Structure to design on (418 residues):
């Protein structure tokens, strides 16, 4: 990745949201603390933030050849961190989309051969080059929306070879694009059709072959399991994730999207980094997450885009003291959006999160959920200079003006990337 070696100074930041504070998940009153500086400047050196403050106070630090970036009075934020995406897949699900418009449910479509299974077919058939081409297009969308770090899951291959193919695509993509990518193994997305009568055989393939190989080759940092109706049971998820933990992978889980089955409690029991979805989770589940320090990752677009109305109870989670993350869940089936401003708007309208809370949840809290809070997610001395000059003067516009075709200026390691 290119790192800007020349020093630069960003001047004229009408609002500079530093998110300054501890490099750990934030909860309670901290969720409204943005470290907002008005009419501020930010000094960058070697791709990192060197100092923030008023221009007149930073002036003495500046070398003579400093490059000046004029933010024009606009709002400057850390690049968004999207902690839950399914970036790599073949084909699309426009057919499913039309069937849902005609009244069929996500589950009905999945049961009749559409859904995840249809994306499997396309992804298995696609060459690495084809998948890389599609993934590049998706990665561009993230950058254009002001996202500079994403977590990206495998999970549309579900054979040893095709899961490795997806993780290799992510590795190649990281070489080509400035978007930071944190890979996750999601071989336990569903049980593929050829193993329908032999679930144990599929689980053994994951635990005995894929997990050891992926961890040996450093192809993923986390392991995820879709624990729900039509996917994996709590007991199956436990066995897979225990193996992943032993192999040195961090744990993330898709839980309780469609029913309460104890998935949230399992995330707590195993000390998972995150429990994602949680649309159906009850007070007991929330308490278990709190006691174990598991971060909830809320995915409002996957409720919205399925025309469902059961949003996760973010207010109860915040009241209980959890440190929420919001993410896109970008995927071809339930959440075809890469836009974090749109997720922030949905979080405001349907999760009842203030714009400030949604921004903490999509920057520093998301970074903490990826064990990256000391590198990204805030604009403080020593952190990566991953930041965005948004096309607005008040950060709350990001939540308020819906689906706006804005053109933010996006920087990674101090370099303008789009
Ligand atoms: O996170 N819940 C499971 N997986 C995805 C949906 C995948 C798909 O429909 O292709 C999700 O919503
Ligand atoms: Fe997902």
């Amino acid at each position: 990745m290119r790192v800007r070696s020349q020093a630069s100074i960003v001047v004229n930041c009408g609002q500079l949201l530093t998110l300054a504070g501890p490099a750990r998940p934030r909860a309670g009153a901290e969720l409204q603390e943005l470290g907002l500086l008005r009419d501020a400047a930010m000094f960058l050196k070697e791709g990192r933030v060197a100092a923030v403050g008023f221009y007149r106070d930073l002036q003495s630090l500046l070398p003579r050849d400093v490059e000046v970036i004029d933010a024009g009075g606009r709002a400057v934020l850390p690049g968004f961190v999207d902690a839950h995406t399914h970036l790599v897949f073949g084909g699309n699900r426009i057919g499913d989309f039309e069937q849902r418009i005609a009244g069929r449910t996500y589950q009905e479509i999945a049961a009749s051969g559409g859904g995840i299974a249809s994306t499997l077919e396309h992804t298995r058939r696609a060459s690495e080059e084809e998948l890389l081409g599609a993934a590049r297009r998706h990665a561009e969308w993230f950058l254009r929306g002001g996202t500079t770090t994403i977590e990206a899951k495998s999970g549309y291959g579900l054979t040893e070879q095709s899961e490795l193919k997806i993780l290799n695509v992510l590795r190649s993509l990281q070489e080509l694009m400035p978007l930071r990518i944190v890979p996750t193994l999601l071989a336990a997305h569903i049980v593929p059709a050829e193993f329908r009568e032999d679930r144990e055989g599929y689980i053994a393939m994951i635990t005995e072959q894929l997990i050891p190989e992926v961890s040996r080759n450093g192809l993923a940092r986390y392991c995820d399991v879709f624990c729900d109706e039509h996917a994996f049971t709590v007991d199956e998820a436990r066995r897979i994730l225990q193996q992943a933990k032993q192999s040195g992978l961090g744990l993330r889980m898709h839980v309780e999207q469609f029913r309460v089955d104890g998935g949230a409690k399992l995330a707590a029991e195993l000390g998972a980094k995150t429990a994602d979805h949680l649309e159906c989770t009850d007070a007991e589940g929330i308490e278990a997450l709190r006691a174990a320090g598991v971060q909830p990752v809320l995915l409002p677009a996957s409720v919205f885009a399925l025309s469902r109305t059961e949003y996760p109870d973010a207010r109860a989670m915040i009241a209980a003291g959890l440190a929420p993350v919001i993410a896109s869940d970008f995927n071809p089936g339930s959440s075809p959006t890469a836009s974090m401003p749109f997720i922030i708007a949905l979080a405001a309208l349907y999760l009842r999160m203030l714009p400030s809370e949604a921004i903490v949840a999509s920057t520093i809290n998301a970074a903490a959920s990826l064990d990256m809070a000391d590198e990204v997610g805030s604009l403080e001395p020593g952190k990566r200079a991953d930041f965005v000059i948004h096309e607005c003067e008040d950060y709350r516009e990001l939540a308020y003006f819906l689906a706006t075709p804005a053109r933010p200026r996006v920087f990674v390691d101090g370099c303008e990337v789009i």
